[in-house]
Recover the amino acids of this structure.
């Protein structure tokens, strides 16, 4: 990533919606520090009532898997259908599964 | 071309116009930043604030029109008055200036409006109290957002500090009007409609002092000039702003979309 000195760092924004149970990634923005990032996230990503809670995290603090490792990382799970708990019959009273 | 409407002089109506017009005119000025703010994120933030203020103006002007009893709705009040019939404080109508001026003015006005809405939430007028209950949440955010910029610009580079000091020196000249007492204020106090604006001065000055200190900025001294926007006597900038703001309703009366 090339940055000039004058450019504000990039932040990733996560918003928990009214109905949602967890924070979901919704985009990114530039801001000088955490406080500004949070305010800008509020203004840019929650102006249509999308949110009840916002997280921001510096993009350079996220450790990501290498797209080149995709085959090695994820393909081995493809034929292991028994890892899904789909063979149990759930009682009706159990929600959110 | 649509002509101007005429209005009553009831003190309650005048008190409501001062609030509705100050939010309307400041909203218009802040909206002028749309597409021009220093960074995209702040552009959206300023547009949000402008829309909050215009939303407050819509609610207050709709109510004011009902109080006046001449059948004027929010659009007619916002767009079909002659310049002398606007009652906004002068500070709100000054040109948008540079970003430092906008930040300083927004801090001054948002701090004032926050304190005013807090009082108005207890108004004897249930409609105004309800509007205030919603608006105070918006004003709190406007104050925090603008105050953070005061700290950043005041404590930033040589240039940002120079511009902020210059903006403060200019904007401060127009602050005595916010607290100048008159018969409209007294009538509002007597009826329980709202506070005398002069009652908000101590709390406003205390909050402003704290905000300015965060940016290493000194509170400018007292001075005797009192601007007169609340009385309908405006600066030379008002007419130019109104010509742009009113153009559509004047050219296409009743236009809506």
């Amino acid at each position: 990533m090339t940055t000039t000195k004058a450019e504000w760092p990039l932040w990733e924004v996560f918003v928990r919606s009214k109905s949602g149970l967890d924070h979901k990634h919704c985009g990114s923005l530039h801001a000088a520090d955490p406080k500004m990032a949070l305010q800008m996230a509020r203004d840019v990503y929650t102006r249509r009532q999308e949110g009840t809670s916002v997280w921001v995290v510096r993009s350079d603090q996220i450790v990501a898997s290498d797209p080149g490792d995709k085959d090695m990382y994820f393909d081995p799970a493809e034929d292991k259908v028994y890892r899904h708990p789909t063979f149990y019959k759930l009682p009706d009273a159990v929600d959110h599964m | 071309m649509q002509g101007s409407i005429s209005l009553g002089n009831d003190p309650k109506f005048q008190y409501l116009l001062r609030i509705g017009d100050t939010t309307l005119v400041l909203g218009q000025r802040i909206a002028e930043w749309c597409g021009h703010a220093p960074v995209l994120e702040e552009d959206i933030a300023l547009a949000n604030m402008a829309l909050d203020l215009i939303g407050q103006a819509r609610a207050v002007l709709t109510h004011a029109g009902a109080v006046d009893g001449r059948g004027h709705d929010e659009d007619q009040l916002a767009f079909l008055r002659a310049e002398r019939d606007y009652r906004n404080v002068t500070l709100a109508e000054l040109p948008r200036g540079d970003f430092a001026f906008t930040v300083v003015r927004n801090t001054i006005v948002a701090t004032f409006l926050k304190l005013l809405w807090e009082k108005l939430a207890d108004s004897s007028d249930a409609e105004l109290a309800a509007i205030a209950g919603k608006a105070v949440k918006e004003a709190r955010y406007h104050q925090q957002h603008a105050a953070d910029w005061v700290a950043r610009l005041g404590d930033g580079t040589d240039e940002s500090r120079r511009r902020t000091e210059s903006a403060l020196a200019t904007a401060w000249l127009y602050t005595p009007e916010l607290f100048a007492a008159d018969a409209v204020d007294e009538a509002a106090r007597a009826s329980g409609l709202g506070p005398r604006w002069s009652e908000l001065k101590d709390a406003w000055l205390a909050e402003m002092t704290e905000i300015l200190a965060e940016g290493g900025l000194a509170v400018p001294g007292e001075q005797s000039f009192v601007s007169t926007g609340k009385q309908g006597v405006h600066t030379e900038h008002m007419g130019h702003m109104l010509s742009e703001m009113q153009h559509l309703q004047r050219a296409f009366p009743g236009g809506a979309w």
Q: What stands out?
A: DSSP finds eleven helices and no strands in chain B. The mean pLDDT of chain B is 96. Chain B has one domain: 11-218+228-251. Residues 124 and 180 of chain B are 22 Å apart (CA to CA).
